[in-house]
Amino acid sequence: MPNLIVKLYSVFFKYQQKHLLQTLSLSSLTDQKPTNSFGVSSRPHESIAASNPSFTDGVATKDIHVDPISSLSLRIFLPDTAITSPLPSTHDYGGYLPTPGTFHRKLPVMLQFHGGGFVSGSNESVGNDAFCRRIAKLCDVIVVAVGYRLAPETKYPGAFEDGFKVLNWLAKQANLAACGRLDSQSHIFDSFGASMVEPWLAAHGDPSRCVLLGVSSGANIADYLARRAVEAGKLLDPVKVVAQVLMFPFFIGSTPTHSEVKLANSYFYDKAMCKLAWKLFLPEEQFSLDHPAANPLTAGGQPPLKHMPPTLTIVAEHDFMRDRAISYSEELRKVNVDAPVLDYKDTVHEFATLDVLLHTPQARVCAEDVTIWVKKYISLKGHEFSY
């Protein structure tokens, strides 16, 4: 069983989250305005960690907005292992800037999608920031944490479209960086006169080794993107999704599984809260627990599972959503996709990513296990350095 601290925190978390869900549900019923296309990517109650473009504890971070017509934002986590020694001094703006014309170490790129039932959470939250720092250092990757638009201000498919927009943006960045190396990055400008090339990714990112990592509702987005990447094929070149990690995916369905019956009132997120979150996320006319966004095994016009990338699934013993995630993994294995399941005893939903649980032994072991598996698919291919 989870320890006393976890149980007490679960009570507080569920009270806060239920209040948020009920408030959002009431406001969505009384608000007759159309869906807000600009949207929001965080809630006022979220504790936010400031970005720091200088290396602190081995990782530098920066925030950027990549879509002028929405609140979609990114936080980039760059580990200092990308920098050849000695570590360069920071520039006038107070952060790291790659030196043009020198060798730079190339790292895989991991797109990370936070949890929160599509209605809360943030790529800048204290817990998500700490988790991404840990993963960036352990996996030796550039983590791009996506601040997708939240519901109910932005309904489905807004968050999913945001994820695909970032995947296309990553491909565009790689192509612009290649143009810059052929000519000069300073010749590439946007309408405001600022360089469109993101310097950290241009110098250090290797999008041909791209990993998707989703937490809870973020896992649904990651799995959707994996499917879209399969459909897009070479249109995303040079981006190649080589693997995905689904951590406690926010899957559900109309026919209850054993865990959905036994653990309906489980810690942190119970079944009633989950249903309410889906009602807030899906448009009223599309609401169904077997909607393709909610149930990955719903029959539809999706690409065959045999084309999916290697998929690691993380489940917790006391999470009511665990059985459906395991079933999805089993279906992937039936068509010869590398799709192991890691099941952690005495754990709860989001045990490896919530700020209060990040320092528990289970959270540390989980991050290390993810690292071991991911490194099978991001091992160095070709040259490690580039100009």
From TrEMBL:
> What are the coiled-coil residue ranges?
none
* One protein family per Pfam: Abhydrolase_3
Highest taxon of source: Eukaryota
Q: Name one GO molecular function term.
A: hydrolase activity
Q: Which InterPro entries does the UniProt record give?
A: AB_hydrolase_3 (IPR013094), AB_hydrolase_fold (IPR029058), Carboxylest/Gibb_receptor (IPR050466)
Q: Which residues form the Alpha/beta hydrolase fold-3 domain?
A: 110-352
Give the record's family classification. Belongs to the 'GDXG' lipolytic enzyme family.
Task: State the PANTHER family in the record.
Answer: ARYLACETAMIDE DEACETYLASE, CARBOXYLESTERASE 11-RELATED
Q: What is this protein called?
A: Alpha/beta hydrolase fold-3 domain-containing protein
Organism ancestry: Eukaryota, Viridiplantae, Streptophyta, Embryophyta, Tracheophyta
